[in-house]
Design brief:
Layout: H1 2-30, H2 34-46
Length: 53
């Protein structure tokens, strides 16, 4: 029965770690100003794509 407890604890730690990663990525994404997002999108549109060859 003890290994069930360890498995449950490992699952809980995994879920918590995933939540931290998602929250950090969301914070980084929201840090951009609207003008920065527009300029990055324009750069993506104007750069040549490698799939045409």
């Amino acid at each position: 029965m003890r290994w069930w407890k360890l498995l449950g604890l490992a699952g809980f730690v995994g879920v918590a770690a995933t939540g931290v990663v998602v929250a950090r990525a969301e914070r980084r994404r929201r840090a951009y100003t609207p003008e920065e997002i527009r300029s990055r999108l324009r750069e993506r549109i104007t750069e040549p794509s490698g799939s045409d060859s």
